[in-house]
Amino acid sequence: MTVTLTMNKKNKKFADAPVFTDKKDYRPTGVTEVGLTFVGHEISEDRTAMNQFLHYDQLYTIRHGWNSKFFIGLLEGKIMGTRCPKCGDTWVPVRTHCWNLNCNLEHTDWVEMPLTATVHTWTVAGWSGRSSLKRLPIILVYALVGDSKVAIANELHNLAPWDVEFGMPLQIVFKPQEERVGAITDFHFEPADGWTPSPMTPEKERIKQLVEPVYDWVKTLK
Amino acid sequence: MSRKVCIIGGATTPFDYGPTGFESIEGGAAECVRETQQDVPGFSLRDLDLMIYSHFSVHFGHQLAPEWIIHDHLGLVGLPHYRVENGGNTGGSALYAAALAVMSGHHDCVGVIGWETMDSVSQSQGSEFIAMASDIRYELMVGGIYPIYYAAMANKWMKDNHVTEEDVARIAVKNKNNAMDNPKAQWYRNDHTYLTVDDVMNSRLISYPIKKYDCCLMSRGVAFVVVCSEEYAKKVNPDHYVTIDGMGLSSCTIRAGDRLNNPTWKEHYGPGYPEMTEFGACRNAAEQAYTMAGIKDPLKDIDFGEIHDAFSTSEAQIYKALGLADTDTIAKFIRDERTSMHGDIPMNPGGGLLGYGHPVGATGIMSTIEAYYQLAGLIPKKHLSTTTEVPDAECGIVNSHAGTGTSISNFILRRH
Questions:
Q1: Is the C or the N end of chain B the one with fewer CB within 10 Å?
Q2: Secondary-structure percent of chain A, ordered helix, strand, coil, rounded to 5
Q3: A118 touching B, CB under 8 A?
C-alpha cells in the first residue's frame, strides 16, 4: 500500500498521453458487447452428448502507435512508406526500424509514395473468410509500390479475373473520402491507365472456367 | 556432446470435423496416453518429468490456458508444464522444445500433447481465425486468408518451376488416397473416397491455382508423443524406439511480400532467394537438421517423410526446400511419382494434412507419430494394410510449417 501511495504522489509521466479529438464511429447499429454469454444448447437423443453455444464479442482498440502515419495517410488518400536513412531501403508496408542487421534498428524516415505499383504475383480467390465471401471472386495481388523493397497485398478491381498478369502496371485508387476508415481497405489497385490485357490464352480460359461458378454461388449468399 | 533424444511411442485420437468419439480435449488426451500405454506397457505417467503442450489458437478453444485442463485431468499435478505456440509449426516447435529438454540432461521423459478444436466455429469463420496469424493490419481485411496467400505464392512458383495444376493435383490424390488406408485419418472417416487427378481439377476454386481438393482439412483432434533419453527408451521399449538424430528450426517474414529483397536471406543464400515463392525457412531448417544427422544426400539418405502438405502446392514447394529437386528437376520429380508409395522417397504415407487432417496444434505431433510408426514397424498394426508401409524404413524426415512459411522445423528420425 505504501508503494502505491508513493507512486501516486510522484505522478510520474512516462509518456505524453495523446489527446484524441478527431473521433469517428462507424459501427453498425445494434452491435454491443455483451461479454461471455451462453445462448443455447443441444442434447443428443440418447442424452449422452451435449453441445453448448457460447457467444463472445469484444471491441478491440488497435493502437497503431508509431505506425499511425500510414493509417492516417490512408484517410488522406496517401500511401506513406518509410525509408532507412542509412541504407536507403524503402518499405510499404512500413517498418519504423530498418530490417538490415548492419543498420542496427536505425529509425526510418516517412516518405510519401507514388500512387503507382507493379504486380509481383497474383491469385484469383473463389473462397475467403466470412467477412469477404460476398465480394468473391477477388483478384488478390502482391504489388511493389514505387521503389518499395517489399510487396503489399491488396485487391485488384476493374478487371476480369482471368486478365490479371505478372508485371502489369497498377494505379492505387482510394475510396471516396467519406467512405475511408483508415484501414488497408481504403484503397485498391486498378490497371494503370492505358494498359490492356493480352489476348485470351488457355490459362485465362481455365481461370474463367473456374471462376464462373463462383459468381453464381455468391448470388445464393444471404 | 549432448544426449541422444528418442521417441518411444505416441498416438492420436481419430481426426474429424465434428464427432470423433473423444469430444473433450482432456478425454482425447487421456485416450492417446492409454493407447500409448497399450503399445508400450512399460511406460507409466509416473515416468514423465515434464509436459509440453502444443496448441495454436485459443479462439477455437474458447478457453485460455486450456492445457491446464488437460494436465489436471491426466493427474499430473506437481509436474512442470508449459505450452508452446508457433502457428502451424506449433507441433514441430513443441517437439523441438521437448528434444532440447532431454538433450540438455535436465529432463528424461517428456510428454508432448497437441490439439485443436477447429469445428467450434463455422469453416469460413475458422479460416478467418487462422488468418488472424497473418498481419491483420495489412492482410486480413483485403480478402486474405491463408489459402489465398499460398495460392499467390504458388502461382508464381509453379510458373517459375514449370509445374502445372495437374502436377500438384497428383500430390493431393496421393495423400488423400494414402489416408484411405488409415482409420484415424479424417479423409477416411469423412469423405471416404479414392480421388483422381480429374476430381481435383474439377473441384471448386479456392484460389487459383488451388482448388478444394488441393487443400488440407479443418479438424478436431489430439495427439500425444513421448520424447525421452536413450536410457529410458532402452528400459521401457528397447525394440521399438527411434532416435531424433537431427533437428532444425528457422523463421521467415510474417507477410510473404516482405521476404522479397530481405537482406538477411540475401546474406545467407544470395540475391533473389527466397523470392516470394520459396520456403527459405524450410531450406534453412533442413540444412541444420541434415548437418546434425550427417545427411549428405537427402534423396539417398532419407527413406520417407511426413511433411506439412497444407496445400498440394506447398508439398511441392517443400520438396524443393528440402533439397530433393531443383528448378530444373522438380516437375519431373513430381511426374515420376518419386514420393508415392512405389517411389524412392514416399511422402505422407499417413495421409498428411490433406488426408489425415490438420488440427493445428496436433498436426506436427501427428506427423511425428506416423514417422515413428514407420520406423518402429508399427504400420501393419496402426494402418488398415501394409500398402502404406515404407518397407525397411531406416530414416524419415518430419516437417512442420507455419504462417506463409514463417516458422518451419525439420527433424531427422532414425530406426534404432
A1: N
A2: 25, 25, 45
A3: no
- CA–CA separation, B113 and B120 (whole Å): 20
Q: Are the Cβ atoms of A126 and B144 closer than 8 angstroms?
A: no
pLDDT tens string B148-189? 999 999 999 999 999 999 999 999 999 999 999 999 999 999
Chain A hits for B317, Cβ within 8 Å = none
Give the count of beta carbons closer than 10 Å to the beta carbon of residue A56: 12
Q: What is the pLDDT of residues B354-405, one digit of tens each?
A: 999 999 999 999 999 999 999 999 999 999 999 999 999 999 999 999 999 9
Grade residue A1 by pLDDT with cuts at 50, 70 and 90. Answer: very low
Q: ipTM score here?
A: 0.93
Residue A178 grid coordinates: 467519406
Give the gap in angstroms from C-alpha A24 to the nearest C-alpha of chain B.
18
pLDDT in tens, A71-85: 999 999 999 999 999
Domain ranges within chain A, ordered by starting residue: 65-219
**CA–CA distance from B408 to each of B284, B322, B373, B385 (Å)?**
9, 11, 22, 31
Write out the three cell numbers for A137: 471472386
Report yes or no: B99 at the A interface, CB cutoff 8 Å: no
Find cell 461471455 and name the residue: A36
Q: Residues of B with CB below 8 A from A155's CB? A: 142-143
Are residues A141 and B152, on separate chains, in Cβ contact within 8 Å?
A: yes
Strand B109-117 relative to strand B50-55: parallel, antiparallel, unpaired? parallel
CATH of span B1-416: 3.40.47.10
Q: Does B23 touch chain A (CB under 8 A)?
A: yes
